[in-house]
Amino acid sequence: EDQVTQSPEALRLQEGESSSLNCSYTVSGLRGLFWYRQDPGKGPEFLFTLYSAGEEKEKERLKATLTKKESFLHITAPKPEDSATYLCAVRDYNTDKLIFGTGTRLQVFP
Amino acid sequence: NAGVTQTPKFQVLKTGQSMTLQCAQDMNHNSMYWYRQDPGMGLRLIYYSASEGTTDKGEVPNGYNVSRLNKREFSLRLESAAPSQTSVYFCASSTGEVESPLHFGNGTRLTVT
Asked: For residue range B39-80, what is the model confidence (pLDDT) as tens digits?
């Protein structure tokens, strides 16, 4: 069964304290893995798409990486404005179905 | 450039009442989607429209109907609201290519009492 699991559920960081969020997935084949950021009361905002193992994408303090079974979202020297829920979604190659994880809620304190 | 616009932002219904959630996109996207988001669960697909003139059921279609009014607009209707439909509803659009990301609106928070 297709499944996407994100960990941890919640993460509290001090400003400047780097860390990583994990998205592990089980699909018959990967067509794409998507990272989104969601602020309270808002819709998810697209960040990155990764397609194949070994691929990396960067945007400001965020870097997403992909292996055959999981993706990491690395946050370097985070700032309070990076506080949000980060969602991962995976599209199955055979069914085209898009499966969302439940997200990691990140809080960065000054 | 507004992206995906949803109305209303908030709504309270009594059990059995009906309502329509409206969604419009200005990105000339072919595909549009309706999702619901509940605490502790990932976004779940209710209905989608791959292109103008077509609609298909998603993972949780029961109790809902949709209309793709034109390329820009995709509405979601609750004919007889139930407390289990209390949720946050998101509309999204994409180019329609399977590798393309979804672009979301800011949601409608619906409470059914």
From this structure: 988 899 999 999 999 999 999 999 999 999 999 999 999 999
Interface check A51 vs B, CB under 8 A? yes
Q: How far is A76 from chain B (nearest CA, A)?
A: 24
- Output the six-digit token pair for B15: 């059990």
Cβ atoms A46, B102 nearer than 8 A: yes
* 3-class SS letters over A27-94: CCCEEEEEEEEECCCCCCEEEEEECCCCCEEEECCEEEEECCCEEEEEECCCCHHHCEEEEEEEEECC
To test the contact with chain A by mutation, choose from B34, B102, B103, B109 the residue with the greatest count of A C-beta atoms within 10 A, namely B102
Nearest C-alpha neighbor of A67 from the set A104, A20, A11: A20
Length of chain B in terms of residues written: 113
Contact yes or no for A100 and B104 at CB 8 A: no
